[in-house]
Amino acid sequence: MIVLYAYIAQSQHQHLIDKYGDLFTDRFKAKILKYKRWQDAQLSLLGRVLLTYGLNQYYQISEFEIGYSAANKPFLINEHIHFNISHAKNIVVCCIADLSIGIDIEYIDYHLDVANFSAQMTENECFQINNSKDKHHDFFTIWTQKEALIKADGRGFLLPPASFEIVDNQARVDHKQFYLTEMNIHTHYKCYLCSDKPIVQKEVQLVHIDVDMLP
Known about the structure:
Helix content is 31%, strand content 25%. The chain is an alpha+beta fold. The strands form 3 sheets. It has a 4-stranded mixed sheet, covered by helices on one side. Strands 6-9-8-7 form a 4-stranded antiparallel sheet, with helices on one face. A two-stranded antiparallel sheet has the order 2-3.
């Protein structure tokens, strides 16, 4: 299992657009060009660039096609390799694995009013957050875990965040067991992997990709 991550860089933005924009479908390129902020455009583009790089470098897949499930989860057509992409603030992460996977990264925003998300939490989770010495840290830990599980499950927000609870990095959803593990990428971010099979963290290869060094 490979987790690639990269930081966006304004100095490289036009170069990335020029170099990689035409490698993807017209639909994806149009999506990139619609963004008003360069940050949003580059976050989306870099996710696809990391996927392309990772598939080629680690799985010897140079050409691929992306399809979408009924719940809009992307997957590789005619491949047994799974992937998932997430981004927050200045970081993009892409996980590629031979098992179904979900990944989420969140920036720990201390200006966020976490009380606005109480309806998305269970009673126990609300109690934990409200009684925490660092409410934002605990909130983003729980929220990132939930997002990763929802992505691994594949139904998107058809699976309500408040309908399940994660205890000791595990959760049972509709008779299916999920396992989570934390990826320590940056102290100001939370990042979790989730799968319906146990994840052995020492077997997860975490790779930082320097945008300046991309081929």
